[in-house]
Amino acid sequence: MTFAMAFDTERRKIYHARLMDARPFIDSLDFAENGRQISGEIPVAGLPRLLDVLENPQGILQYTVRGGTDKQGNPLLDVSITGNCRLRCQRCLGAMEHAVRIDTRLLLRDQASLDALDIAGGEDEEEFDSILANPHLDVLDMLEEEILLSLPIAPKHELGACQAADGGNMQKEEKNPFAVLAKLKQNN
Predict the structure, then answer these.
(1) Dist. CA 87–CA 54, nearest whole Å
(2) Contact between residue 107 and residue 126 where contact means Cβ atoms under 8 Å apart
């Protein structure tokens, strides 16, 4: 008896397996040209590159990606992401809430257009960011990239709200080890 016969005795080839967490993929040009929209929620823990900068992987982010074209007929994606995440303060290394509010427009370009933008450098500054038009664009990777680009380089609590040992530094300043030498110098 072979495995196939034991598993599917009637040979109907109907399997009711639970699907893995489906990552949304889109054909970016088709999506934009037909004005489609995709919305959903992503757990922060499901974004592996984002986990490196977070203090805590808890939280949910809501997103919407709308396809369309600009006035010149160029395909684009309007991306909106909202939610909260907990970053690590670079002063005290404690947790700090960070509100994620992203509304951006991404122009879809072919490789030749992107290369031309690189050659032009900063001379012809674009109003919107451009990405490579992809027939198999991973939406979650694109969202994660936009979130990472929006985060502060060195997140810090507001002045006075940080739990860093500011009081400990004051005491150290009062007991300056060279104060004894200064007294000896004054006595001579």
Answers:
(1) 4
(2) yes
Whether the pLDDT of residue 105 is over 90: the answer is: yes
Residue type at position 4: A
CB 147 within 8 A of CB 102: yes
Q: Which two tokens stand for residue 39?
A: 């919305």
Return the DSSP state at 101: E
Residue bearing tokens 């122009």: 107
* Tokens of residue 30, six digits: 């088709």
pLDDT digits (tens, 9 = 90+) for 150-185: 999 888 888 877 765 444 444 444 577 777 777 777
Place of tokens 């999506």: 31
What would the pLDDT profile of 82-100 be if each residue is shown by its tens digit?
999 998 888 888 888 899 9
CA–CA gap between residue 8 and residue 151 (Å, rounded): 51
Of the chain, the percentage scoring pLDDT greater than 90 comes to 37
Instruction: Please list the residues that pair with 115 across neighbouring strands.
Output: none
- β-sheet bridge partners, residue 40: 63
Predicted TM-score (pTM) of this structure: 0.70
